[in-house]
């Protein structure tokens, strides 16, 4: 069986595939245009995909030979799941192995913004250490504050747990369903969306993205948040309206923002948000640790190998395919 991988992944995954007797193709140039990428996809049985290439109507029409797709990500918002399922194509993903690393980044962004760390680091790099000033660009402490989690799944839980342990934060959450275990374990309280945005001192997004939720966090939501709120998004940039977020930050309607994901991605070079002292932006590095990336490679390879043996993929985004 032929497997196309569009970008090199940790060796462990490639070795697993080769030892399973699969024919692996990885292009020399791994920065493929859409056309080049489609060309490779047309000639393969299975795809191990790194990145946000859209598996949309065009893809499924042009690549009828593809029988299985293993994503090198937990998120699958770039895949038309209905269409894949209709065509009996299992879509594998990589849950759990990146939850710690991604929640670490949410925690890091929260702290970086609360103490203006990236702003001050830039000043030092610019040779502008500055004099001790009792009133200049002060941070705020997180002890005992309220953390609101939007989407309390695997990553949201780990973020809530860290914030509880490190800062004794009160946890409120809004999710598709109640999670009684989490309520008991972290003394977390389920709230409505309105309560979440009105009561949080830190609001951290961890839901999986669907296009219907584009720009859910927009001007009308930012204006109802607390003035001291730190807005953290490590889920998908599509959840927030980038210009409305800028306005809310620059007008002091909200206190700060930590973003590992932006809208659009990559962020535009001239996005004025990059000039603000109350913002920290990272280039989508949630899962960028050796441990998480090795785990992702292993899970993605397990998915492809299971498929090649006629077995169910063990980590799957569309279990209804079986
Ligand atoms: N920044 C990164 O590098 C990075 C890394 C990994 C994952 N992610 C993102 O994080 C997301 C979450 O990953 P996970 O493993 O925790 O997923 P998960 O499925 O375990 O958790 C998502 C939770 O969000 C809830 N949810 C979805 N839509 C909602 C809505 N409209 N209202 C309320 N709750 C809603 C779901 O019920 C679920 O409990 C991924 O889908 C991905 O987009 C980003
Ligand atoms: O969803 C994920 O796993 C990350 O965002 C990497 O794409």
From TrEMBL:
It catalyses: (R)-glycerate + NADP(+) = 3-hydroxypyruvate + NADPH + H(+); (R)-glycerate + NAD(+) = 3-hydroxypyruvate + NADH + H(+); glycolate + NADP(+) = glyoxylate + NADPH + H(+). The keyword Phosphoprotein does not apply. Its EC number is 1.1.1.79, 1.1.1.81. Residues 4-318 form the D-isomer specific 2-hydroxyacid dehydrogenase catalytic domain. Residues 109-286 form the D-isomer specific 2-hydroxyacid dehydrogenase NAD-binding domain. One of its GO terms (molecular function) is hydroxypyruvate reductase [NAD(P)H] activity. It comes from the Bacteria. Coiled coil: none annotated. It is an enzyme of class 1 (oxidoreductase). InterPro entries: D-isomer_2-hydroxyacid_DH (IPR050223), D-isomer_2_OHA_DH_cat_dom (IPR006139), D-isomer_DH_CS1 (IPR029752), D-isomer_DH_NAD-bd (IPR006140), NAD(P)-bd_dom_sf (IPR036291). This is Glyoxylate/hydroxypyruvate reductase B.
